[in-house]
Amino acid sequence: MPYDVAAFYQFAALPDFRELREPLRAICAELELKGSVLLAHEGINGTLAGRDGAMGEFIGELRHGRLFGGRLDNLELKFSKASAMPFQRLKVRLKKEIVTFGDADADPTRQVGVYVDPADWNALITTPDTLVIDTRNAFEVAMGTFAGAVDPGIARFGEFKDFAARHLDPARHQKIAMFCTGGIRCEKASAYLLSQGFAEVYHLKGGILRYLEGVPEAESRWRGECFVFDERVALGHGLRERSVKDDCDE
User: Fold this and answer.
1) CATH code for residues 114-241
2) Angle at which helices 184-195 and 160-167 pack, to 10 degrees?
3) 180 carries an active-site annotation
4) What are the sequence ranges of the domains in the chain?
5) Which fold has domain 3-94?
6) Active-site position among 28, 180, 186, 226
7) 134, 150 in Cβ contact below 8 A?
8) Model pTM score
9) Residue 213 has pLDDT above 50, yes or no
């Protein structure tokens, strides 16, 4: 497959995020990358695709280049492949949040849930006293989820607060495990639940994509496919891509 795709994020203090936009766009354009990058005071979040080692050069610039000055040395990063360019253009946008939640209590730089490696995830979610929650939007859940996970039935991530207020209770739900596509939404959701008095909050490190990449299909508790926000539509075990053409051929 000729294109490398990188999904990345990090919560980090970027008070100069507005000034970073154009230099970052220039770096992406020079490397002929396409996709989307969000910048905010709280960090960076993006998915980009490119050819011939360009993605590795870009990630090296984020981690070690002068533009960010070492502030992105702890990127959560996942690579996959695409048979065709999965994005139409390059977008570098300024945002209030790198993933919209709308509550100051959801601050992963202050506190965050316990990260669980994919290799340990099955054991956690099959423990009887663990409530497993899919933090993604309802249409994403419909394409695939972990066996036994609760679907909050939300149309956008910001509604997770309302779901928690209606259905979750720190006294009854003392052990919660959450997951999302790449991990970023769970960072905020876990920070929020901790701020509301929940004692044990866990989340899947690297998200569903890291799990599908590393856990053998024969051992997997994942059912279906994982929706991704590009023209590949969804990925399966081993991060195999599914295209719109595949749907038409079925």
Assistant:
1) 3.40.250.10
2) 40
3) yes
4) 3-94, 114-241
5) Alpha-Beta Plaits (3.30.70)
6) 180
7) yes
8) 0.87
9) yes
